[in-house]
Amino acid sequence: MRNWHRLLLVIAVMLGLAWPALAQQDVIEPLPVAQPYPASEAEMALNRVFLDVVQSVVNITVAGNRAPLGTGSGFVIDTEGHIVTNNHVVEGASYIEVTFYDGVVVTAELVGLDPSADLAVIKVDPTDPRLTLQPVEFASTDDVFVGQRTMAIGSPFGESFTLTTGIVSAIGRSIRDVQGFSIPRVIQTDAAINPGNSGGPLMNMLGEVIGVNTAILSATGVGSGVGFAIPADTVRRIVPYLIAKGEYKHSYLGITGAELSPSQREAMRLPLDVQGVMVADVVEGSPADAAGLRAAPSRINTPFGRAPVDGDIIVGIEGEPVRRMNDIVAYLEANTQPGDEISLTVWRDGELIDVNVVLQERPRTFNLNEDS
Question: What are 309's strand-pairing partners?
Answer without folding.
Answer: 298
